[in-house]
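Thread: Newbie trying to understand structure tokens

Hi all, I'm a second-year student working on a class project, and my supervisor (Dr. K.) asked me to get a predicted structure for one chain before our next meeting. I've only ever worked with sequences, so writing a 3D structure as a token string is new to me. If someone could post the tokens and maybe explain what I'm looking at, I'd be very grateful. Here's the chain:
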Amino acid sequence: MSRGSRTLTVLYVAVALWLSFCTVRTWGTVPGWTTFAMAVAALAPVVGVVRETVIADERRTVAVLREREGRRAAWRDVAAAALAQAEVEAACCERWWTSCATEHDPGCAHRTSWGQTA
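---
Reply by user tm_fold:
Sure, no problem. This is what the structure looks like when written as tokens:
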């Protein structure tokens, strides 16, 4: 839960307690409907506390999903790098074929020009 959510939760609880206290203190001295209205008002901040708790859970869930997506993206980056490396290695052999076997990288594993051993 974030600092702002904790602050709001504390304020909600304080308001609920104050309204509950006022409800108990006015019981029997004021008309019944006002006491009932005060009791309902004392329950309203509970909805705020539940809301803040749900939002905190959603934030945690989103953070976990973002972390998982980050791991997937890292795996895709590794796969893309391997594919790019394979294409670069194949390009060496393409240069060899298109240059009539005159240009070939010395470190190429597919080096098979005439007069050279593999």
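A couple of things are worth pointing out once you decode it. Helices lie at 3-26, 32-98. The chain has a mean pLDDT of 77. Feel free to ask follow-ups in this thread.
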